[in-house]
């Protein structure tokens, strides 16, 4: 792939926790300006891969580059934070602060040595809260929010960071069905505006509907990569997820969608 078309390039990556290797000899190119979904069974390495890209987890071998210039493993942290933003699967919320204060943390990579917010910082904070649908919560304390509200506030934080690359690990967690689709539609809008998005998803039908490419992982390896139409098959579901399903056409989006095969259930009733 042409380097100008590559947002993230990963070469011969080895990474794990303590003495346990999770990902071994992984190679991957993420296309610039696309939505790429990482899918696979629990424990296959999806979250580990995102942590490696964002430098939360140090690989034991290999390299990760953003575009042609940024070496993730050696570049200053502030420069990395201006290039990509991560919404992790688990977040730790500080107590006693308002929603707007938390969202403002997203501007940290742009602050000067005095840590003062400038006019552009305030503009980005307000825009991020509006996009995430939390403007009306700006002055509420985060420890008073529901799980779904708090998840949207964290999304506002990474939007305030205003990076070209967004990494999201199961971002629809805690969101009801309406807010799930609001978030996914927002990601499409951001993508159309030029942002590259890499997202870990467990809802396979949503992944097929919203992603340009699927990266299918199993046991720390990439099994396949391609458009949903090319790689989302009944055989893949059976081999990777141990899931018996039929793949049909999504009547709304004309993308593949899976429907679980019906199982006979025997019900016994007391006389």
Explain this structure.
The protein is of the alpha/beta class and 271 residues long. It is built from nine helices and twelve strands. It has helices at residues 46-53, 77-83, 99-104, 119-132, 147-160, 177-192, 204-210, 228-231, 234-241; strands at residues 6-17, 20-31, 35-39, 61-66, 70-71, 84-87, 165-169, 196-200, 213-218, 221-226, 245-249, 256-260. A hairpin with a 2-residue loop joins β1 (6-17) and β2. The longest helix has 16 residues, at 177-192. It is globular, with a radius of gyration of 20 Å. It starts with 5 loop residues before the first strand and ends in an 11-residue tail after the last strand. The mean pLDDT is 92.
Question: How would you summarize what this structure contains?
Answer:
It is built from 9 helices and 12 strands. With 271 residues, it is α/β, with parallel strands linked by helices. Strand 1 (6-17) and strand 2 (20-31) form a beta hairpin.
């Amino acid at each position: 792939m042409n380097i100008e078309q590559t947002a993230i390039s990963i070469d011969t990556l080895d990474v794990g926790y303590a003495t346990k290797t999770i990902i071994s000899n992984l190679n991957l190119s993420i296309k610039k300006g696309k939505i790429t979904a990482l899918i696979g069974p629990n424990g296959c390495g999806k979250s580990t891969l995102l942590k490696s890209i964002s430098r939360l987890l140090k690989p034991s071998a290999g390299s990760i580059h953003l575009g042609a210039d940024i070496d993730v493993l050696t570049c200053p942290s502030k420069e990395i934070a201006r290039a990509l933003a991560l919404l992790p699967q688990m977040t730790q919320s500080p107590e006693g602060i308002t929603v707007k204060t938390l969202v403002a943390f997203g501007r940290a990579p742009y602050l000067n040595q005095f840590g003062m917010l400038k006019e552009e910082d305030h503009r980005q904070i307000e825009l991020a809260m509006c996009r995430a649908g939390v403007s009306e919560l700006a002055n509420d304390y985060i420890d008073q929010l529901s799980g779904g509200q708090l998840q949207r506030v964290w999304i506002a934080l990474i939007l305030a960071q205003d990076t070209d690359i967004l990494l999201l690990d199961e971002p629809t967690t805690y969101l009801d069905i309406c807010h799930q689709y609001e978030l996914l539609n927002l990601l499409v809008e951001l993508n159309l505006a030029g942002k590259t998005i890499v997202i870990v998803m467990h809802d396979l039908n949503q992944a097929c509907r919203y992603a340009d490419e699927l990266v299918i992982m199993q046991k720390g390896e990439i099994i396949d990569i391609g458009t949903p139409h090319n790689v989302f098959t009944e055989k893949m579901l059976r081999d990777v997820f141990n899931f018996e399903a039929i793949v049909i056409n999504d009547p709304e989006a004309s993308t593949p969608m899976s429907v679980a095969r019906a199982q006979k259930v025997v019900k016994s009733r007391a006389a």
